[in-house]
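#struct-pred

JT: dropping the chains for the assembly here, can someone run the whole complex?
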Amino acid sequence: MAAGEGKGSQKATLLKVLHYIRKYWIYLALSIVMAAVTVTLTLYLPILTGKVIDLILDKGMVDFAGVFQILQKMAVVIAVTAAAQWIMNVCNNKMAYRIVQDIRNEAFRKIEILPLKYIDGHSYGEVVSRVIADVDQFSDGLLMGFTQFFTGVITILGTLGFMLSVNVAITGVVVLITPLSFLVAAFIAKKTYTMFHVQSQTRGEQTALIEEMIGNQKVVQAFSHEDEALEEFDEINDRLGECSLKAIFYSSIANPSTRFVNNLVYAGVAVTGAVYAIKGGISVGQLSCFLTYANQYTKPFNEISGVVTELQNALACAARIFELIEEEPQVPDCEGAVVLGNVEGRVDLQHVDFSYVPDKKLITDFNLSVRAGQRVAIVGPTGCGKTTVINLLMRFYDVQSGRICVDDRDIRDVIRSSLRDNYGMVLQETWLKSGTIRDNIVMGKPEATQEEIVAAAKASHAHSFIKRLPQGYDTVIGEDGGSLSQGQKQLLCITRVMLCLPPMLILDEATSSIDTRTEIRIQKAFATMMQGRTSFIVAHRLSTIREADVILVMKDGNIIEQGNHETLLAQNGFYATLYQSQFAV
Amino acid sequence: MKKLLVYLKDYKKETVLAPLFKMLEATFELFVPLVMAAIIDQGIGGGNIPYVLRMGGLLIALGVIGLVCSITAQYYAAKAAVGFSTKLKHALFEHIQGLSFTEIDTLGTSTMITRMTSDVNQAQNGVNMVLRLFLRSPFIVFGAMIMAFTIDVKAAFIFVVTIPLLSVVVFGIMMLTMPMYKKVQAGLDSVLGATRENLTGARVIRAFNKEQEEIDAFEEKNSALAHMQLFVGKLSALTNPVTYIIINAATIILLYTGAVRVDEGTITQGQVVALVNYMSQILIELVKLANLIITITKALACANRIQGVFEIESSMEWAQKLTDTVQPGSGMPAEDGKATARQQAADYIVEFDHVHLKYAGAGAESLSDLDFRVKKGETVGIIGGTGSGKSSLVHMIPRFYDATQGCVRVEGRDVREYTMEELRQKVGIVPQKAVLFQGTIRDNLLWGKQDATEEELWQAVETAQAKEFVEQKEGKLDAPVAQSGRNLSGGQRQRLTIARALVGRPDILILDDSASALDYATDAALRQSIRNMEGDMTVFIVSQRASSIRHADQIIVLEDGEVADIGTHDELLARCSVYQEIYYSQYSKEKEA
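RK: done, full complex below.
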């Protein structure tokens, strides 16, 4: 697919869509057949009605036997049409919802194996909207669009055929005037497109302002900034009012205008039809049938023009979804990767080069050798990239060159999950899933008994607050911890690791979210936990730092100093400045 | 909804004219089958071609009039609806801004944002549709029936039976499926929630190797959603076929009755055609009406939610103008003694007089019996564990929350006697969460003082230790700030929020744990430069770091909403166990010794 080749990429997307539909081809086939049946019979019905009317001529001139016969036929046609319509609807539903389900499942499975780089680099909202909104729009647009398109085309062709079979001249009138409606609709759509564009842009501007000002109301109030905010809001609000009025009004002209064209067609058919009827060319019944057709004929045209844009939109949505689904997954475990059993905990980083952006060097030729059971503290000012080290150790990101070994084995040669099993990780950004407290604690050890859970919770000092929650360990917490305080969330995250206690630990020390007194206990718990375990601590507390065997000092993403507390102080470098600032003032 | 209608007040004319023109249009539409019947009976029956042509002209004329009426109606409807929502949004925005912190806490920001955006849009849509269609559709339905009566009473009774029957089916299925669609929405929300959760928690999920479990859980939710959708879909798929059957069965009966009546000579062939036409008009309009009712129900629900926001009153009343409230000597005689006491107390810039605070809906007090005084120019450190009430304490000074008992005084005056502007000008606060607004750095700093000079801005920036990075930015003070300050680092944001508060030169500066993202060195330099500022600024520093408050004139140690002790660093270290514990957790004992 060459870049910029719009048609080609649309075709490619369409092919991929077909791949998903293939599974449900029976429904598709059935739906198409039923659509054809529905449309044909719907078109046939006015003919029957016309025939009945022709049998009702005047006082005493009614052929009751004939009327009865046709009415019976009509009843059958109606029943069959209704049944076909229902089957078609059900088939379409089934196809639409199942395909949506399949695509969402696939997208979600992809999310679980995407490299962290993708997840870090894309806003969550954007990915979520691909999985939710785009998929919905795709199914609505494509599948509904497809059936509308299909029935529309059949209706037009069918109507033409029926009309031609009755009278060519009147058909000519219909065919000549109808394109007018087409033109009018297209003209209005084109005009309103820019207006809607302006409207949605202005609306976006307004939403952004609302999010800012209402979202940070407290700050607005603290600075008595309400009047200015309202002024700014009103300016956008008035502008939005103006362009909304234009967009809504012009788009709402479309309906009356097409209806008007429709009326023209109707009048045209009425006059030419009546003239023909007077001359004996057609019957009154046929004329009434024509009138019904004239009403029906323009509708599919209008629908089809809408459907085309809808289809394009749906394809654009589909393309966005496929982009996600086809995104390069993380490097799979290499062939012959081995399970990393219970490790001793030796970690070696050899000549490691790493950067997030290719042309912006971050870590270059970094070497570190950690013996089993050692404590490594990572320190540095905020934003210096301390988390980068965690990313590399856990293999969320791969090194660009050099290697990282655990127990002398390159971590790229072991199965990812077994590497991660050996690490216990507590991040500063607490993350809890919606579910019960218990669900969250047993993440690392689903088979844990109640006793084990309580023991872990006690060890991390979470037990006392959990037990006070309404349902204790079975209390359901919402997305991202819901009503728990930041400190409580952190405690739960610690309990989670406390329960499984892997041989190596990665701890991201909380700066300020847990109160100091609880933190003292946690530090004690950490200390017991760290006994004999290799641990990496992103440290903020000097006490933690001083007890570390190795201190890595980071600045601007780089590791600039390395050593223990005494040697680093003696170097009198960045670490020394950092350390002394605590006491200097 | 009713109360929201006041926002249509200025659009009375439009609100009346829109449906009126719609009805006119509908009336002309109802004439069409009659004209057609005339063409058949008199034109064709009498072989009168000029008559046919005249009637054809009449049809076109009806169409033109219909078009004009309808466009006029659309215009008025759009104008009224847009005007309504513009006014509504203005009022809502103003109302929300007037709410106090207590209501903001209970409502939640995301709720307020939804009310202001999608709910208002739905309401606007509702108004628009109601004005356009709510009268038109029933008018056509009943109009068609009435026209049928003018043709033939007996045939018209078929209409009388068919219309209710159709309504029952159309609205019945709608009523049945509507609550189910709500469930579908809930199912969709849970699928969405799972997706979001797996993005935000990607690291933890992978660290615990939970990918497969998450996939299973997702697929289960997803399949539950699909099942629900299929079920509802099956039900609503019934609407079209069933209405099709009813309307056509009615047509069959109509044709038969017509045949009998024509045979009797009561009506003509053309009139039968007209009756059949009316029947099909009814179906089209009923379906429109059903869709309209869905829109209206949605709009009503939104309107009620918006109304709910309007009904929340600010729980805090502010003094109007300074002159109306405290005029020395103008108070009641009984107050005189108090006034002199106040005069004396004015040496103290901030006083907490046995203050208690209980948040709305909370079970217990967050602050109990706080009683302390702060002199002008002092630096006050506030330290304590999470939830000990540090932020609550400082939030009471600019009166974000009112004391449930006792009172807070600033310069000897109860904070409740100040006007909002006056108090908030005196008190500058740097909140915990460093929030900046879209615009430039300058725009943000000017929040502190509208007419600040270039020099004042730079001074504030320098004091806040932000000079270095601001100077490096392209455009310096005019460098752009993205929404919520995303293009700045946490530390940079924090320093700018501090500068913002400093620009206003407040008498009282509150730093609510606002240096947490700064490294120790910057934090220290910041405190140093604030101390060196000219003027007698009183500073409150809330912190978890002992080093940040160590040199304060007095340190308030909080524990569980109560004052554990107040004193200087040395005093507290000697006697306060809570303080000792905090301090030694950050500085090892031996170092001190």
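JT: nice. The radius of gyration of chain B is 36 Å. Chain B touches chain A through 162 residues (CB under 8 Å).
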